[in-house]
Amino acid sequence: MKFGGFVPCTLIDYPGKTACIVYTIGCNFRCPYCHNPELVNETVERTFSESRIFTFLESRRGVIDGVVITGGEPTMHGQDLLLFMRRVKERGFLVKLDTNGTNPNLLEVAISQNLVDYVAMDVKAPLSTYHRVVGRPVDIGAIRRSIDTLLSSGVPYEFRTTVVKTLLSPEDLEGIAREIAGASRYYLQKFVSSTILNPQFKRKVEYTDVELEAFRSNAEKYVAFCGIR
């Protein structure tokens, strides 16, 4: 695999751990608020080889705990991703996977083969309106299956939603919480306009902190914990 980005150290992307981050290239969604358009559009100017990543990891034994694999959408890389995860685990590092949940088969394999230690799944919208938010046709059954897989897996996980006012109503946010009912961790992520896939979203009005707190409180009727990032 070649990666479209690499961050040597993060203290916030893997809860409770010190990690590096690798960014996979390509995505099957076109969320207009995406902060990594060069990965989605596959226009990255610089790539990082697996060998470079593993050389780095060898030099950081005892310093970092694991590797965060994000994107783009990592699970688009199929067996190559599973092999990379296995090689990371064989070197004694933890693996956190960020995913949009469109490949439940790969997710189930990764969990069953102990290749992943933490999963963060983005839940973009209520299942009935998913296509409107992600900008592509979507297999809702696959999203539902990934949610159910995490709920029953025993692997530490979180669900998270980027809250964009023009795409998600208060009713939508409650609908998402209802669809992940029983989850241990759910995060509402503030929409912050910067470099995003659709520049028009830089002009969109955001929910206030007071509104986000109300959404958070309401979500905790369905999940064990809901936080705001």
Automatic annotation (TrEMBL):
MF GO annotations: 4 iron, 4 sulfur cluster binding; catalytic activity; metal ion binding
Keyword Metal-binding attributed: yes
InterPro entries named among the record's database cross-references: Aldolase_TIM, NrdG2, Organic_radical-activating, rSAM, rSAM_sf
Named cofactor requirement(s): [4Fe-4S] cluster
SUPFAM superfamilies the record matches: Radical SAM enzymes (SSF102114)
Top-level division of the source organism's lineage: Bacteria
Signal sequence segment: none
Name the UniProt record assigns to this protein: Anaerobic ribonucleoside-triphosphate reductase activating protein
Species of origin: Candidatus Kaiserbacteria bacterium RIFCSPLOWO2_01_FULL_50_24
